[in-house]
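Thread: Newbie trying to understand structure tokens

Hi all, I'm a second-year student working on a class project, and my supervisor (Dr. K.) asked me to get a predicted structure for one chain before our next meeting. I've only ever worked with sequences, so writing a 3D structure as a token string is new to me. If someone could post the tokens and maybe explain what I'm looking at, I'd be very grateful. Here's the chain:
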Amino acid sequence: MDIKKLVVDSTLLLAKKKNIENITVQDILSVSGISRSTFYRHFEDKYDVLNWCYQLYVDELISQFDGHNWEEKLEDTLLFVNIHGNYFTKLSHYEETNGFLAFLYLYTHDFYAGVYKRNVGVKALSEDIERSLEFICGGAIMILLNWLRRGRKEKEAIIAKAIYSRLPVQFREYI
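---
Reply by user tm_fold:
Sure, no problem. This is what the structure looks like when written as tokens:
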């Protein structure tokens, strides 16, 4: 049994019934049936679980990525976010140090940095590329947040296109 998946599924179930700020680790333990020590072996806190829900799905999508049509993978990611829209909309309002926005920024940054370094064959990013990456990640996250907070009215394909089309060519050619 995959403990992390069990905890994420339990947390998603709780999020349908309670506000995220009211979900406690004890609630997660009760629904999942795991012990406190098992929980803390896998997660730092409830925010780590909340963030890992996104990471679990997107990591799976990325592992299946064949190097073609990144815009389609963005759309698939947005479809997942939309299916769990209430959950992610609630998360989008938590701006703590270990909250979803900080996690999403680092996750997005690390992904694009890794793709760029692998494809260009460098071990470190130049200062210019790093600044571009900061801008790209911040902008992509704001597009996502605005979509969430405005009720996810636009189709996933429109938001995916909005994000992808704004990637500078120097990044787009590598993903």
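A couple of things are worth pointing out once you decode it. DSSP finds ten helices and no strands in the chain. The mean pLDDT is 88. Feel free to ask follow-ups in this thread.
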